[in-house]
Amino acid sequence: MGDENRFGQFKTVGYKDGTHKTKKTKWIIWIIVLVIVTNAITLLVSTQISLRTPNGKVIIGRDAYDQVLKFQKLFLVRNKLYEYYDGKISDDVLVEGAIKGMTNSLEDPYTVFMNKKEFTDFNTQTQGAYTGLGLQVGVKEDNIVVIAPFDPSPAKTAGILPGDVIEKVNGIAVTGKELEKAVTMMKGKENEAVKLTLNRKDKGIFEVSVKRAKIDLITVKGEMLDKNVGLIQLTMFDENTAKNFNKKLAELKGKGMKSLVLDIRGNPGGLLDQCVELTSNFIPEGKVIVYTIDKNKKKKEYKSTGGLAIGMPLTVLTDEGSASASEIFAGAVRDYKVGTLVGEKTFGKGVVQTMLYRSVDGFDDGTALKVTISKYYTPNGENIHHIGIKPEVPVVYPKALKEKIYDRALDPQFKKALELAKGKIK
Length: 426
What we know:
alpha+beta; Pdz3 Domain; 4 domains; six-stranded antiparallel sheet; six-stranded mixed sheet; globular
């Protein structure tokens, strides 16, 4: 009779409504109330929750539990598909589709989830070689637009031009929201043909068939134009660009270069660290080349480390194919007035992405998440996204010439840049 020994003797208590309750009953009620209130408070303030599963209990954080509740409809739909769908189902396919759906819903063509194959393909391009058409593309007004064909490449040979809008790949319609999908479709086995449906201003819709080939990207080429003027062409900022540029710059200086023409037309950008290292050659040490601001208003500055061409007369060729890292370079040259921009307005990509692929980020299966993390600003504080950079000396490249095999002797932008470069020699 342990309860009686604990609580002692109980007497009857009378109530106005004629009912009777013992003191023991009253205490039990208060204990129950206290337990309920305590549990409610614990649920509200606790940072950990115990969930019962078929294999036992699992302790998860309060925030994680709240996130599970938010996404419970995903699990509901998954279960209903298994219950009703008359066809083959794979959890792996469902998970990838759900993840891609999340990134697509942001309507940012530069924020994408990559499966293992897509991430492998992405890496090969930044390493300087891949199998495809040799096209660099971007997004404008929800269209997939050719920034530039690489030279040489099957795309260049087929006559594809900067500004061409890709409407279909192998008959499948694509929009700016499906940028990575379109890129993946254009890559693949060597010598296989890819049919592109293009839309070109003043020409309309037309089709081209282009065979994939191995693209070996030579991102830095240079030569002396005469005894005093050098030319360097940059086609992309891959992981070797800065190193190769420094070698070429030193080589041309050794040959007597006193003025440089730097051609970044058709350069779609690439790696930020390579751009900063390369740009440092022209910007005094310690000066900000570019800075970024993220969603939390955190500012990060990238400063010049100095280089081989501080004070050297510089003339830079730009066009609508100059994008991203190329625009960081052009913006620094313009803002510090260390060179003259010649040609046409640049593409206008002023956002920065990072790649999450390591196990520490939760990606240990070969997949990756490329995500826009910040906007970048030129030294004078301008974000050029969807705006571009206008050259100080505008020179239009005639459309008729674009459709012909390139001839430097007929290139009005190059001729103007060369004239300016010669005029800067003291």
